[in-house]
Amino acid sequence: MDALHPEVAGEFGPLTEYVGYALRRAQLKVFQDFIDTLDELDLRPAHFSVLTVVDANPGILQSRACAALGIQKANFVPLLDGLQRRGLLRRVALNGRANGLHLTDEGRKLLARARRLHDRHERRVLGVMSALERKRLIATLSRIAGLDEVSPRAAPAAARRSPSGSAAAPRRGSAAKRSP
Amino acid sequence: MDALHPEVAGEFGPLTEYVGYALRRAQLKVFQDFIDTLDELDLRPAHFSVLTVVDANPGILQSRACAALGIQKANFVPLLDGLQRRGLLRRVALNGRANGLHLTDEGRKLLARARRLHDRHERRVLGVMSALERKRLIATLSRIAGLDEVSPRAAPAAARRSPSGSAAAPRRGSAAKRSP
DNA sequence: GGGTTTCATTATGGGATATAACCATGAAGC
DNA sequence: GCTTCATGGTTATATCCCATAATGAAACCC
Fold this sequence. Notes:
- 2 copies of one chain form a homodimer.
- In chain A, a hairpin with a 5-residue loop joins β2 (about 90-95) and β3.
- The longest helix of chain A is centred in the middle third of the chain and has 22 residues, at about 105-125.
- Chain A has helices at about 20-40, 45-55, 60-70, 75-85, 105-125, 130-145, and strands at about 60, 90-95, 100-105.
- A 3-stranded antiparallel β-sheet of chain A has the order 1-3-2.
- Chain A is mainly α.
- Chain A has a domain at about 45-145: Winged helix-like DNA-binding domain superfamily/Winged helix DNA-binding domain (Arc Repressor Mutant, subunit A, Orthogonal Bundle).
- Residues about 1-10 and about 150-180 of chain A have low confidence and may be disordered.
- The interface between A and B is large, with 88 and 91 residues.
- Chain A binds a DNA duplex through α4.
């Protein structure tokens, strides 16, 4: 506890010294900036991530894509409906039950624009740190994100309420298998 | 663009190289672990943060507390109702319209337990990094969180849809001023 | 005292996500 | 060929979290 509770304080009490707190604050900030950035294209972060994944994996199965993104397949449907309705993406029936996902030309074009906006956003965020810092940050964050097996004795009573995180990011824990 | 799009790939495309993506993934992970950790006390992150702030600032105004935590005052009401119903916190009328917030003995006791759990959680997260790394991480994250004035030309069309992604759980951060 | 501001509350709606139940289809086995 | 089972997708439903707007009331200011 000593190392965890230095002097701290201000109005927040010890809050400011917690990694989770710092993480959340930063994430909120960045995410909000990202949302604002993509707003002019009427894209939300989840949309952007879907377009990105489909673009990188043409023909990817709907189930596989949503698993990769950590989105429940049930929630994935209306999301795709929206993108499809806007003519950005197509569901191509593979065999009567499975769909392969493809971007349309328009989808690719919009994604390109989104990427340019995203780059500006990224640069904005990166503006407050050096290249080395960025590298370290991503490395550390990735390590944190992969701490699946880290909490063995933790997560006790859990399983009662559900996460409620968000979509755009891979909430790993979700129920998803891979290929058929 | 060059620096932003190295080689990348896998199933996620360029996603893995984005700071925002890494941030989100890490944040989701940590948050979930935190939620699981506090679950046995029936506390959610928001509860924990409220208890922490009130404990550190006995008698703090309701409005001030929720502003500090970045919670809308409207949403703060049922939150406090819950804590008060559980006998953890009291609203002390100051003058007929303003309430000062105080923890009850029980509230302090529960907070102490929660803090112990939180410490374990924090240590778990910190387990994947060195002390130096942690210091750097918090420093960088804090810098990011404070990049308010960073996006002058950004946030263009914005203001159309509301944030949504903002004030969430230990949204400790968000829009908050400090002292009066 | 009357207008304005501050503080708290109620009411309402939207967004995002989890769950469960439900088809349909393809694959496997006898 | 027909049953059985796993898979992919969809629908429907419940919940949680948060935001906005409107209301009520007290304090503040001239």
